[in-house]
Amino acid sequence: MALQASSLLPALSVRKERRVRLGGGVRAQTTTTSPSTTVSSPDAKKTLRKGTVIITGASSGLGLATAKALAETGKWHVIMACRDFLKAERAAKSVGMNKENYSVIHLDLASLDSVRQFTDNFRRSGRPLDALVCNAAVYLPTAKEPTFTADGFELSVGTNHLGHFLLARLLLDDLKKSDYPSRRLIIVGSITGNTNTLAGNVPPKADLGDLRGLAGGLNRLNTSSMINGGEFDGAKAYKDSKVCNMLTMQEFHRRFHEETGVTFASLYPGCIATTGLFRSHIPLFRILFPPFQKYITKGFVSEEESGKRLAQVVTDPSLGKSGVYWSWNKDSASFQNQLSEEASDPEKARKLWELSEKLVGLA
Ligand SMILES: NC(=O)c1ccc[n+]([C@@H]2O[C@H](COP(=O)([O-])OP(=O)(O)OC[C@H]3O[C@@H](n4cnc5c(N)ncnc54)[C@H](O)[C@@H]3O)[C@@H](O)[C@H]2O)c1
């Protein structure tokens, strides 16, 4: 399917899925409304209200491009969940976002207290929650030593996985309460968390094993799973965190989709060479890439294009499937990608879930 601006307008074509309980079983009913600004609901036909979406790490790169794509439809209010309030405000202004279509709430995913505080602050805003996009990430490929979150977890896994895990668990109740036609929790994945074929400095397998390795990696006292040949391996820690993201998305789907109707999905946004994250992948890029970036497009996707992709996964009725991992081909057509064995093992996902619950204090 080609990308179209209209796919970002939730009110234009609303595919509404209702779960109906029938003699102990659960059946999905699907209705499609024709283009209009109303949705069918049990009580009355009413104007589709503005949706509210939270995007983590929305002050740069993919997060900012997605925030812009959703805000400029005028159909979404974007909550930019960021560490630096002023940076987020400046970023929103730099891409021309209208103040009416966004707000900023402080969130530091590397602190579980901050995640809880964010949730409280969001609830105080009185807004419903219709979509949550877990986008923020850190990537430390050149780090020689591990660094740690406020709670003592290795920074990549602690931020990218555990911070988002707690956030998504806490906000699931809010998504459940939303009366929006399509409620979605989207976790941004990465090819490093999905394939075994990447060349270069990304280790081929996430070292989750029976999760003893993961527990070691997450724990301040023993970072052995993140150590490769005696050295901390930041690329490996990132990969482990992304595999955790994929496993978590699927476990959310298994545990809650049927019961709540919320859609859980992940996506690979493409290779976006202009963001902070990608440039840290290959340090030389920081110097060599900027002067040439407007001429180099092959194999890369622009921030704007990838922001539209992610916005599409948040809003497009035809991408409302749960438990899936979206990718795009070179013609910008979306397709459901196959997750690698290590990123789709249900037993590993269950163990990861239980371990993560303990680590964030939810068990
Ligand atoms: N750039 C690529 O080629 C590429 C490829 C595949 C996947 N991704 C994924 O895309 C997502 C966005 O990355 P990007 O490329 O836009 O890079 P980016 O560095 O521009 O964005 C990452 C964002 O996360 C935020 N962040 C980091 N630590 C945080 C914390 N503790 N609390 C709150 N926010 C924090 C940063 O401030 C930044 O805004 C990531 O999940 C990344 O894994 C990127």
UniProtKB/TrEMBL annotation:
GO terms for biological process: chlorophyll biosynthetic process; photosynthesis. Pfam families: adh_short. Keywords: Chlorophyll biosynthesis, Chloroplast, NADP, Oxidoreductase, Photosynthesis, Plastid, Transit peptide. It is an enzyme of class 1 (oxidoreductase). Its EC number is 1.3.1.33. Belongs to the short-chain dehydrogenases/reductases (SDR) family. POR subfamily. This is NADPH-protochlorophyllide oxidoreductase. It comes from Spirodela intermedia (Intermediate duckweed).
